[in-house]
Amino acid sequence: MAYAYWQNDRTYDRACFDLFFRKNPFGGEFTLYAGLSECVKFIQNFRFTDSDIAYLKSVLPPDTQDGFFEHLRQLDCSDVELYSIAEGMVVFPRVPLIRLEGPLGVLQLLETPFLNLINYASLVATNAARFRMAAGPNKSLLEFGLRRAQGPDGGLTASKYSYIGGFDGTSNVLAGKLFGIPLKGTNAHSMIMSFASMDDLKCRTLQPAEGSYPVEFASICERWLGEVCKLCDVLKEQTIKGELAAFIAYARSFPKGFLALVDTYDVMKSGLVNFCAVALALDELGYRPIGIRIDSGDLAYQSIVAREVFTKLGESLQKPWFPKMVIVASNDINEDTLLSLNQQGHSIDSFGIGTHLVTCQKQPALGCVFKLVQVNELPRIKLSHDIEKVTIPGRKQIHRLYGQDGRPLVDLMQQMDEDPPEQGKSVLCRHPFEVRPTRTRQECTVSTSI
Fold it and tell me: What's the DSSP call for residue 85?
């Protein structure tokens, strides 16, 4: 297309494109707008390199005129104007997220990059916001999706925009480095399984938080295990010694951040009591353990039992902090899982969510489109037998109108030459496609424009 524009002397015709979507994702009522910052970076750095030109020469028809390649060599976005809704805003169908004005040939080249940068970013941010709403405002949400994401770039993008959508942290270390997202994580089943017995524990000592000399930490853990088993009515012989050894090894490395995975073998008969023993040993040496993660089984039931155990031990041993330890749940959690857990009742403080968050399994794409709406001051419209694909022509300004109670009422699209709405005055609003009733009149208070 760029070559056709150039040959027909249309490259520098003044054009306007709108980027928008037609339906909210996941069958929902809103979309969270994301990806704008990457679009800005893209146009700031948009150039064709010598390597790019050489490759294009090799794939375009041999009779392509040399002047076109010289034209590409000089092309940039210095004459492009970008108008956008603020990133992170809640947005709705048909409302332009981005309006681009500039040379027709240049804007056409921006179509695919902009759609790529906005579609997935907004989709995963919206998905994250829906998970946040399902979990509630007081639960911690951790993004664990890197290993299930569509490649490393998809994983990094998911980490960034999940955080924008309301998650509290990520297990993606590179995302933490690049974007300042808090890093969260625990040990894996493989580490626990790598310890077969206490004999595999090569280092048994730990320096107390306020002491100068290391003490025999493993022996303290074994002593506490006997006490915990008595209080919890669990046979000490049923506990897995390799699991205890793994917990001790992990606690030695992270005495201030001990959060252990307890479902490798048996949560109730081994994992939970082994964790409590190591947690109490850490407390004896002046450290405060964080909690546990459960990655399988009945998450609601196991979390309630774990909380009961923490409460019982806290009361019996006069450790008021013990019942407050964190319980993290994972295991292929989706939005419906969170809603179900809330209905059942649970004692989970934090959720580690991966696959269903980053792959957006309910809906794999948002469906943003990039449509020409004006060329050389002449509005353009795309017609279709499918009413959803008919575009709204012309350059538009967008105003979000608020009612007297401060709540948003409607996003109003106007032509650029129309007077903007005024505070306290009536505004005639009409849906561009759903025209029943034929007229709607609403008192609106204008607070701001997008």
Answer: P
